Amino acid sequence: MGKPTGFMEYKRLDKKELDVLKRIENFNDFHIPFDLDTQRQQASRCMNCGIPFCQSAMKINNRNVGCPLSNLIPEWNHLIYLGLYEEAYKRLEKTAPFPEFTGHVCPALCEACCSCSINGDAVGVKANELFLISEAFENGWIKPKKDIKRNGKKVCIIGSGPSGLSCAKQLNYAGFDVTVYEKEDRFGGLLMYGIPNMKIDKKIVERRINLLKDEGIKFINNTKIGKDISMDEINKMYDEIVFACGTSQPRPLAVENNNLEGILFAVDFLKQTTKNLLNKENFIFNLKDKSVIIIGGGDTANDCCGTAAREKAKSITELEITKEPPKENTVPWPNYPNKKKTDYGVLEANTLMGKDIRRYETTIDSVVGEDGHIKGVYIKKVEFVSENGRMVIKDVPNTKEYLDCDYLIIAMGFLGTSDSDAESYGLDHNRNRITLDNFKYSDKISVCGDMKNGQSLVVIALKDGIDCANQIIKKYE
Ligand code: SF4
Ligand code: SF4
What pTM did the predictor assign? Predict the structure, then answer.
């Protein structure tokens, strides 16, 4: 299978991107797709390994290795190389519920453990996946499934993020009558409001929701269960209830005066920015000509950097508490590499500021306000030291420094389910986690996705939604 020498003949190419200073003029996708010949060449780099680690869905040292969905990667790579795109898509859709989501936002665990990456560059699996699903939509290969035999059982899914949607799709295909409730005005959870439009265009999310509606799933927005509809009513209406509400409790900044105006959680900042963009309203948090500090070093902090660059902030600084990662990878294949990378948002902010905006082993010491609004922060250096066998964070003396700050955006991750969510649903919880036996909270109630696992990747949430649905399906077989 495959072109036997493809991996030796062709170098990995990454999609070209629009010039940074041009692309930050709007919130549009800035990647330029390959032409068909290049796409086929890139697919031909796949060696069809005897043991395809790329699709292995393994855990090594409790870390995910390989595609969690077990996507049939070598098979569709080969079919792309042959130019049999529709056949390739048919293999992709067997395991991937929404390749247009993962094709945009997945960190490509498959590529990290691709055999080609042992001594070279991985096959561009994610780009191949996005190519196939784009072709499928463009060429009308995706038709709403209408011939579903119904089993008379009603399921309610609370939350329309990745795990809620994949669970809904799986249950709907198995014949359940599925209703998805969403407390926000638009569906998609973090795909809609937690990830900016330039990373995944909201029309892509809406296109899939419309397809799921055409297939018979009911979607109800602006409805908070436990407030707009009581849990008692939900209990009476449905045979099964699935909670897929994500991790809604952001990790707070533990300093005095952390409630000053201008101190925002990243999730609120990104949500409001996307709402304003879609509603064609002015940005509520207008960062133009403002000094912006983002605390956190993950994907969400990166998304905030890209958003602040598009809003033309006067200065953008990212504070990361961790050590600066090494320039060369330090962990052996097939683990996810540990090396410094510069994602799109940081690159954009760096370009706009003319320097690397990241400051490592640095955190906030205190915030300074004026008339109820933040006006500056004292930052300090920290170090990780071993104490009694545990790593603890210590301040480095005499390193305090003052920075102007009109907006401080907190992107330090999530603690889990919020108390108010768990209470309004009547679920017992312990330190932001719902107590579960596998997916089961009770005979009738299941929990999946980040609400069950804590903050994780979209691809893991998708798999969790499918596994949760399969457990319910089994119960009625
Ligand atoms: S879902 Fe992610 S890990 Fe799986 S094949 Fe696609 S990009 Fe790779
Ligand atoms: S590990 Fe890489 S080269 Fe091997 S089958 Fe998977 S994508 Fe192809």
Answer: 0.96
